[in-house]
Every structure is written in C-alpha cells, then in structure tokens.
Specification:
Protein-Tyrosine Phosphatase, Chain A; 16% strand; globular
Length: 146
C-alpha cells in the first residue's frame, strides 16, 4: 500500500500503486490518477493497463504521462497541467517513489506562472527536492510571465 503524500491543495504524490490503492484513492476524494512510470521499468511493477482498468471501474480518470530516462518534456508538463486544470477534485500522481510525479507537478506550476519558492516549499514539506528541475522551472515561469 502506497502513501498518498499531499503536495498542494488538489494534488497528491505516491510511489508505485496497485489496483487495490485505487479504492483508497477514491475514498480519499481523488478523481484522477496520473501514471508517471513507464511500463516495464522493473519486472514486478503492475502494468499501467491494470491500474487503468481499476481506475475505470472506480470511476476515476486515468492518464499516463510516463517519465523515463530522457526526463521531462514540455508536452509532459502541458499534459499534467491539463489534467490539473480539468479535474473536478484531487489528482494523484504516482511513479516509483513519487519524485517524478512531484517534479512534474512543480514544472506544471511553473508553467502556470506560480511562485517558484512557494512551489519548492510545498514539495519540500512533503519530502521532495525540486532543485534538479529548478532551472527548467525558472524558464517556464519566465515564459509564463511574457
């Protein structure tokens, strides 16, 4: 069972979830699940289709935005921003440890022009360090301001 860490109002991050965690997510008021883990990253990882089927059965939206070794793209950031903008409730992002999900959330916040120190602070309160993507956050925030 994975811990759902609150990052900000409306967004939680978690390590790898399984289909049983979907019921807990729904009970926690989560309406959308975002899978940031590529299928087959490790042999014992549940396939994304299994999580998608459980989400569908529970009435939760499911989006796959796999973040692999090449890192984050603008399309990934925009895809999460779209999920966050359209979800009628809380969103749960998951990957192996919750780090990629949190970093992608931070990039999406920067893309929306949010205060970067506040974004970094919220991530830090949940135990995540956004410094690896801080330069990209600054670029996205500058673009949002122009």
């Amino acid at each position: 069972m994975s811990e759902f860490k609150p990052i900000a109002d409306g967004f939680f991050a978690a390590g790898q979830i399984d289909d049983g965690d979907i019921v807990r997510a729904k009970q926690a008021g989560i309406v959308a699940v975002v899978n940031n883990r590529p299928d087959g990253e490790v042999p014992d990882q549940p396939p994304g289709d299994t999580i998608r089927a459980a989400a569908d059965e529970a009435g939760l939206a499911y989006t796959a935005i796999p973040i692999g070794p090449n890192g984050f793209s603008l399309e990934d950031v925009e895809a999460l921003a779209s999920v966050l903008d359209t979800a009628d409730g809380s969103v749960l992002g998951f990957c192996r440890t919750g780090t990629r999900s949190t970093l992608l959330w931070a990039l999406a916040q920067a893309h929306k022009g949010r205060d970067l120190d506040e974004v970094a602070g919220k991530a830090a309160e949940a135990g995540y360090d956004v410094s690896p993507v801080r330069p990209a956050m600054e670029q996205l925030a500058a673009r949002a301001r122009s």
